[in-house]
Automatic annotation (TrEMBL):
GO terms for molecular function: ATP binding; GTP binding; GTPase activity; sulfate adenylyltransferase (ATP) activity. Its EC number is 2.7.7.4. Keywords: ATP-binding, GTP-binding, Nucleotide-binding, Nucleotidyltransferase, Transferase. The keyword ATP-binding applies. The keyword Repeat does not apply. InterPro entries: CysN_GTP-bd, CysN_NoDQ_III, G_TR_CS, GTP-eEF1A_C, P-loop_NTPase, Small_GTP-bd, SO4_adenylTrfase_lsu, T_Tr_GTP-bd_dom. The lineage of its organism: Bacteria, Pseudomonadati, Bacteroidota, Flavobacteriia, Flavobacteriales. GO terms for biological process: sulfur compound metabolic process. This is sulfate adenylyltransferase. It comes from the Bacteria. Pfam families: GTP-eEF1A_C, GTP_EFTU. CDD domains: CysN_ATPS (cd04166), CysN_NoDQ_III (cd04095).
Amino acid sequence: MDILRFITAGSVDDGKSTLIGRLLYDSKSILQDQLEVLEKHSKNKNEDGVDLALLTDGLRAEREQGITIDVAYRYFSTTKRKFIIADAPGHVQYTRNMITGASNSDLMIILIDARKGVIEQTRRHSIIASLLQLKKVAVAINKMDMVDYAEEVFENIKSEYAKIAENLELNDVSYFPISALKGDNIVSKSSKTDWYEGDSLLDYLEQVALDDDKNKGSRFQVQYVIRPQTEELHDYRGYAGQILSGKLTKGDKIRILPADLTTEIAKIEINGLEKEVAFEGQPVVIHLAHDLDISRGDIFATEEHLPTVEKDLEILLCWLDQKPLQLGNKYLLQQNNRLVKAVVKEIDYKINVNNLIREQADDEIKLNEIVKVRLRTAQPLVYDSFTHNKTTGSAILVDETSNSTVAACIIQ
Ligand SMILES: Nc1nc2c(ncn2[C@@H]2O[C@H](COP(=O)(O)OP(=O)(O)OP(=O)(O)O)[C@@H](O)[C@H]2O)c(=O)[nH]1
């Protein structure tokens, strides 16, 4: 079953928690014991006897326990698809959380309160969607119950948003008149909006086309080398890791990067069983036709769509640390399992998150600022542009002394 990853964006009180709660509740993704606790504590009850926002907020408390990049992920599934929701706070001071959540998402749901219409936050979240190349946006116009399910309210907000979308080149936008609280047009179509001809939000989420993998290329990254020390297995050498994108098939000719070695896949194992093919996301052990010098972080790629191997990188980054970024600073760049030293060579420009305009950057980059920089790594990095492959096109910067994540990076 395929997986859709999406992020919900909205400003305080637009109903994000209620919407997520509604999706989890109506798709029966809540565990029974959670449900009992919820029913007991619900004060702000709806017809189902539960407070949906409390459900999400209760789960959200996990997030407040000191996780560095605090995006909470929620999982649910229907018979058609699995879903991963990135739930990041919407306030300006949490831009970094939005960036982290959005860079892993296929789609953004932008919540708008029907009574308030498009606000500054709506614009900012849309800019982030555009910056991170989220091609699909679902605009959920919420609290329709509070405006008597009026078509006119929906249409006005829709045409106002359409202008923003056009400016930001967001070309695939769908609009939904919903009430997260009452459940209108969330899972099934509501009788109160008979003027609305589109799908329910969940129908859309179940059907929306996912990006096809053809141009991403096949990528596998070595997490560790397996070399048992026993006599009878002395010829065994496997490379454990994850298929980052595409697929690998037994017999494929591959290139091993950055060293640029060529060999063939001799055997693929998944959970100890031999397989012909391994697909994106699967943890596998790969055996090769030749005995080569390979280490953690190396990338296996098939001949078509080879990645770039370079020391000089152009990066768009969101600065996540209280301590500012300065020209010449050294960090560790982590791209999945590969960790290399990197130095900031140039700070090109800053992007104003309120209007996407490029501005001259200061010598110091502060928390939540988005900048274009040039980095040089100590060893060559194997990467794709973020546009082609989000997994191999993104990375984080880590501070060597504190070991904390200081930037989220998109490779250009
Ligand atoms: N009438 C009505 N009220 C709603 C609807 N959706 C949410 N609410 C109410 O709006 C208030 C805020 O909802 P939340 O879901 O907590 O909003 P939020 O966006 O998650 O807010 P934060 O968690 O603070 O970011 C709550 O009192 C909800 O019951 C809706 O569709 N109709």
